[in-house]
Amino acid sequence: MSYIIVTFCPGAVKKARGFFTKCLMFSLFAETRRRRFFLPRQALRGTMEETHSYPFVEETAMSIDLRSDTITQPTESMRRAMAAAEVGDDVFGEDPSINRLEELSAQKTGKEAALFLPSGTMSNLVAILTHTHNNARFGEVICEESSHVKLNEVGGMATIGNLMCRPVKGVRGAMPEEAVRAAVQVTDIHHPVTALICVENTHNFAGGAVLPLQNLAAMRRVADEFSLPLHMDGARVYNAAAALGVKVSEITRYADSVSTCLSKGLSAPVGAVLNGSREFIAQARKYRKLVGGGMRQAGILAAAGIVALTEMTERLAEDNENAKLLANGLAGMKGIGLDPAAVETNIVIFDVKATGMTAPAFCQKLGEAGVRCLDVGPYAVRFVTQRHFDKSQVPAVLKAVESVL
Ligand code: TLP
């Protein structure tokens, strides 16, 4: 309105012009503020609500955050390493800190080489693109029905990779050997050709389940039988290693490539590492560039990643134990559906249907009682333990849950 008035008052008295100019400036200022502060937040809520309710809960006196291990802050040791990091241009392969991180990760996962990427999502996408680049025009990726690559990576394999996802129902995240074998397509002219098998370990939406080593061996068998590559989304594979009490390479040896996250329980601020053969990683470097993941002096981030891999993997056992303590307490509560024996790592997923609440309503109420968590299904609620959650806080969480039932 003020724009119109000002435009149409060319001959008005000086005073009035001054007044209208002020109106215009105020309205532009208000408009800018509205765009900058209000619109993005509404838009953000809109997109988030499609997957989780992410309740916007006011801070209370007690605030325990069990939404995800992605909330972990970098440690003091990471901050020091970041400040002192030697850096270079990584697109030229000249960042010494990134090179050190990649060597370290490759060595830990028992692979020849590795590649640093900004996120687990990009790491999985780059792995999928690299494995399937010869037949991406009509290729299919076998993955577990509720896997992260299928549900939570914005369909990147389809939109960017021209690939179809072929879901197979797992038992606690582990796809049965026969079902995977039956899902492989090779000859029929009607069918997309299977290009890759993808497993997730630990399996997030199966409640942090650890894939049994026998199951990984079975996946390897099927992959070899049909000459297919096998990729592991090992975002939390160090939690799996802690739960099994084995070196991580004992788990990753079954897969051709493995993506590991540094910014979850391991507490680095950013980053994932993709591990595989020298040839695979050389090709993956090209795909990382394609999707815009070629970074420059990112050794500042890799320095935190080195600390993550050298100082933070051992302590994940503590997160796994704390999740168990939560699960034991929750399992006895009226209306909560949960088998505590199934909780192996740092994720606890439980059913709240019998409480009469939906998962979003439960999360909202619990948030108001001081505990933040996520709904991961209409009646499924997820707690994730991490470094900032201490076992002394378990009773407070259980008390808060009881108070909302
Ligand atoms: N998972 C996040 C959310 O996306 C659900 C979480 O809070 O658990 N693989 C697995 C198994 C994951 O759980 C995640 C993140 C990723 C890949 C993606 O990692 P980022 O967030 O680094 O892209």
Protein described:
- It is a single chain.
- By secondary structure, this protein is α/β, with parallel strands linked by helices.
- The protein has helices at residues 2-7, 14-51, 76-84, 96-109, 120-132, 148-151, 156-159, 177-183, 213-225, 237-244, 248-252, 278-290, 299-311, 316-331, 359-368, 394-404; strands at 64-65, 113-117, 139-144, 163-168, 193-200, 230-234, 257-261, 272-276, 347-351, 371-372, 374-375, 380-384.
- Strands 2-8-7-6-5-3-4 form a 7-stranded mixed β-sheet, with helices on both faces.
- β5 (193-200), α9 and β6 form a beta-alpha-beta unit.
- α4 (96-109) packs parallel to α13 (299-311) and α5 (120-132) packs across α12.
- The chain is globular and about 55 Å long.
- Mean pLDDT is 89; it is low at 1-13 and 23-55.
- Bound molecules: ligand TLP.
- Residues 68, 70, 119-121, 148, 152, 200, 204, 233, 235, 261, 263, 272 line the site of ligand TLP.
Euclidean distance between termini CA atoms: 52 Å
Which architecture of the largest domain does the CATH hierarchy give at level 2?
3-Layer(aba) Sandwich
Percent of residues in beta strands?
A: 5-15%
**Helical/strand content category:** alpha/beta
Q: What is the global morphology? A: globular
The overall number of domains is 2
Bound molecules: ligand TLP
CATH topology of the largest domain: Aspartate Aminotransferase, domain 2
Number of strands: 12
Unreliably modeled segments = 1-13, 23-55
Q: Kindly report the average pLDDT value.
A: 89
**Strand order of the main beta sheet, please?**
2-8-7-6-5-3-4
What is the oligomer described by this structure? single chain
In CATH terms, the superfamily of the largest domain is Type I PLP-dependent aspartate aminotransferase-like (Major domain)
- Amount of helix: 40-55%
Estimated radius of gyration: 25 Å
Order of helices and strands: HHEHHEHEHHEHEHEHHEEHHHEHEEEH
